Amino acid sequence: MEPKYSEKFEWMQNRLEELSEAVGQPDVMADVPKWQGLLRERAQLEPAVTAWQEYQRLCAHLAEAQELSSDPDMGEMAKEEARELAEKEKAEAERLKLFLLPQDPNDQRSVILEVRAGAGGDEASLFAALLLRMYMRYAERRGWQASVTSISDTELGGVKEAVVTIAGRGAFSRLKFESGVHRIQRVPVTEAGGRIHTSTATVAVLPEAETVEVDIRQEDLRIDTYRASGHGGQYINRTDSAVRITHLPTGTVVTCQDEKSQLKNKEKAMKVLASRLYDLYRTQADSAYAENRRSQVGTGERNERIRTYNFPQGRVTDHRVGLTLYKIDAIVDGDLDEIIDALTVEDQSEKLKALE
Fold first, then answer.
1. 3-state DSSP call for residue 70?
2. Contacts of 144 (CB under 8 A, 6+ apart)
3. Angle at 216 between CA 211 and CA 219, to 5 degrees
């Protein structure tokens, strides 16, 4: 491996040792935001340092095999082992470069996922409900915990807007590419003539932030309670358990009516508010990122799309990487890994080009 890469890994290893010592210091633990930040940094460095240490052991074994190649008794066996280890060393050196790519500091976070119906009337709302179920199923497949924070549904079973918390290590790294306009083409259940209809829904994926990471002053909040509404449910319209929180300086509004308890709804709403404000402040600090996010989410018009779900042909196409898969039923049931893996590889390839 080139010296410039080795130096970076040596720095990572030294930094990891520093962090491991720092997170145990009482004064650091007393500063919760700082302590959490150091823990996240350590968690990001650990896989890279572990891979680097394994690579060093591989190089040591390769050097031993090369040295034994001249031995009259073990030469042939050592040469064969050296050839195998050299091939493995080359492959591992390339894999290690992935750890040098710029890391999104939010990759290990849980997410706040928002789905909204776009263009297409009732069919768009039904599509949003389909996407919501798809992400809930994907979370289940990954062993993550998914809970609906707020939802606005329709008489036909569609969804106008829904906010979901998906809790799991690395959730943001897997779901961040889902932000954007999704398009569906199918014969809707509301269409008697059998005409293929095109409609859209938008998805936004935000890294979940702890309230301690965002400066939220109580005097900047207006908290309203009201009766939960929806189609059925034992507790619907009986108690003022639903909560609406308005962040006055930014005009950000968050609602939660999922829980029976007003206190629990408030706690959930505060988490969503913290995540939205965290994302807002992050995008304001980086105007280039903000423009990129706006272009991803778009307006929900039919001609803006990152992915198309074509039911008559049974295919799903992700337009960013040109990937088409003919297993639409499995995908809408949460089998998203093949698409997400392709998007991840594409992102890594672009970053590797910049690294070279």
1. coil
2. 110, 166, 167, 168, 171
3. 140
When computed from its CA atoms, the radius of gyration of the chain, rounded to whole angstroms, is 25
* CATH class of the 212-285 domain in this structure: alpha beta
Reading the block at residue 244, the tokens are 């609406």
Among 311, 285, 321, smallest CA distance to 180 is for 321
The whole-number pLDDT of residue 258 equals 81
Q: List, for residues 222-258, the tens digit of each pLDDT value.
A: 999 987 765 444 434 456 789 999 999 999 999 998 8
User: How far apart are the C-alpha atoms of 134 and 175, rounded to whole Å?
Assistant: 12
d(CA 231, CA 295): 35
Give the separation between CA 242 and CA 240, rounded to whole angstroms.
6
- Collapsed DSSP state (helix, strand, coil) of residue 200: strand
What is each CA distance from 251 to 179, 266, 273, 276, in whole angstroms? Answer: 22, 18, 11, 11
- 256 forms beta bridges with 243
* Residue 33 pLDDT grade (very low, low, confident, very high; cuts 50, 70, 90): confident
First to last CA, the chain: 13
Right CATH for 111-209+286-355 from 1.10.540.10, 3.30.70.1660, 3.30.70.420, 3.40.50.300: 3.30.70.1660
44: which 2 tokens? Answer: 């990001």
Q: How many CA atoms lie within 13 A of 44 on its CB side?
A: 21
Q: Where are the domains of the chain?
A: 3-100, 111-209+286-355, 212-285
Output the CA–CA distances (angstroms, integers) from residue 310 to 71, 187, 258, 307, in the order listed.
64, 10, 32, 10
Verdict on whether the full-model pTM lies above 0.90: no
Q: How far apart are CA 323 and CA 345, in angstroms?
A: 12
Distance CA 313, CA 60 (A): 54
Mean local confidence (pLDDT), 202-231: 83
Q: What is the pLDDT of residues 95-151, one digit of tens each?
A: 898 888 877 888 889 999 999 999 999 999 999 999 999 999 999 999 999 999 889
Contact between residue 225 and residue 262 where contact means Cβ atoms under 8 Å apart: yes
The rounded percent of the chain whose pLDDT value lies above 70 is: 89
**How wide is the angle at C-alpha 330 spanned by C-alphas 149 and 119, nearest 5°?**
55
